[in-house]
Amino acid sequence: MGERFVSPAGWTPPGAQFSSKATISRTVGATLVGLVVTPVAIALAALGAADTKRWVILGNLADRWGSALQILVGATLFLVVAAMAAYSPASTMIAGLVWGVIPGLIYLIFPDDSFRTIGELPLLSDEMHIALYEWLATGFPLIVGMVLIGAGVAATFRRR
């Protein structure tokens, strides 16, 4: 009776596949990635969208491929952030809240202050200031933020 029962090789207790010891570090890491990738996606998509105005004005002389590529890369980065919800739903929801919903709601409440704040952002060109303000004025941050939060909520419900 002195010997303990030895589990068969490869055996795990029921429900062990649902437990994770690295949940906090995974969430923190994915959140940091989401908080860095999302503003890059916003910058690329906003610049690309602002450059599309030139298509109408300049016609074939405009850099269509450059702005189209910026929009596609920005959209792909948004897709990466949304897909991270499968890895850590909280990270996608936090990125959507910080870079989408909060700026969108602030713009709706304080549009003049938002324009002034964007104009005061350091290290950005005048073209980027205008592109960010146009992006904000169209409501896209609020839309993208809600979509990212929705992706996180859907991933959370899918896990249960």
UniProtKB/TrEMBL annotation:
The chain crosses the membrane at residues 28-48, 68-87, 94-110, 130-157. Keywords: Membrane, Transmembrane, Transmembrane helix. It comes from the Bacteria. The keyword Transmembrane applies. This is Uncharacterized protein. It comes from Nocardia uniformis.
